[in-house]
């Protein structure tokens, strides 16, 4: 796959990096890139996606798994996907499990959209930054956690009765 990508990108302003980079180098990459693309099949929170969005970059990513919680048509370029059964043990997934394989045709359309509409891409990047900073900064998350903990503390007697009843 890596060799094919290098072959396809000859003569283009594309750099393929097939290694793990230290965080400082990743920050530089986020800051200087034109767009972030993540055609994942199964993603946790999506740190790379979220970091790129926090840097105000347009993001093209599979609209599957946790990133679909914060990626929208307004702040990013979600890519369609289809369930695919896993045929051999891959990573941590067992044979027969399913994951969301990205639609590469749709991903290519999204890439052309970003390239051909830089103002739109910049606008989405700005909204992406607002989304991530508005939801996931530690102080924002801390406020939500504090609110939930206060609720649980306030209703602890009711919750205790509920749990005791369920365990009886």
Question: How would you describe this structure to a colleague?
Answer:
The strands form 2 sheets. This protein has a 3-stranded parallel sheet with strand order 1-2-3, sandwiched between helices. It contains 7 helices and 5 strands. It has 2 domains: 2-136, Rossmann fold; 137-168. It has helices spanning 2-8, 23-32, 47-54, 104-116, 118-136, 138-154, 156-167; strands spanning 36-38, 59-62, 77-79, 81-85, 98-102. The mean pLDDT is 91. Helix 3 packs across helix 5 (118-136) and helix 5 (118-136) packs across helix 6 (138-154). The radius of gyration is 20 Å and the shape is globular.
**Average pLDDT across residues?**
91
**CATH topology title of the largest domain:** Rossmann fold
Percent of residues in beta strands = 5-15%
Order of helices and strands: HHEHEEEEHHHH
**Record field, number of beta strands:** 5
What is the makeup of the main sheet? 3 strands, parallel
| Uncertain segments | none
Number of helices: 7
- Helix content bin: 40-55%
Which CATH architecture of the largest domain? 3-Layer(aba) Sandwich
What structural class results from the helix and strand content?
mainly alpha
First CA to last CA: what distance?
A: 56 Å
Name of the CATH class of the largest domain: Alpha Beta
Rounded to an integer in angstroms, the radius of gyration calculated over CA atoms is: 20 Å
> Any idea what the shape is?
globular
Kindly give the count of domains: 2
Strand order of the largest sheet: 1-2-3
